[in-house]
């Protein structure tokens, strides 16, 4: 597998990066993890819209899904259209929520261009086995494990510390983990996001091989968040940056 960072800014797009979006490729298949604000433009540096195999949404906050509106427009009005509907996996109610975001009636909403599926615990998507688990956030949210051959990538989405994430990430080759808040941050009273210390601790408990810190808001320094995560994770810790790639 190959992981490419399309957008890694947390909560909002930043001056040098769209919000969350990641391209995972293997055997010529293109799987997108989240399509947050501004990420559709970055995605098109790597592939055209008809080359998208699947979109996988961790949850329905705008910084993780809102460029689905732009994708709908491209799929509907591009000179290359119509082409086969693009599968979109997400939480229950994704189709209705995205129809509302674009002020469309529920029927058909975006369903003529996009094919919506609700997350199951395990599903086969192209060459990938994709496993999910519910995590801790104000809305229904999922961590996502993508497996190909004997390799595994786990994406936290947005979450507070949870044993469910540790179990999903067990033995993964790479954990792509949010670290949206700073350690001892007073803005995290409900523990609905991870701090760097949390990210490192969860990675350590799961026994992952590499930890990549992402979803850092533009008001924090990415490298500082990564350095803080190194205090609790003894393995390799890297910083997600736009266009960074990782072989898995």
From TrEMBL:
It comes from the Bacteria. Residues 18-193 form the Metallo-beta-lactamase domain. This is MBL fold metallo-hydrolase. It comes from Kribbella alba.
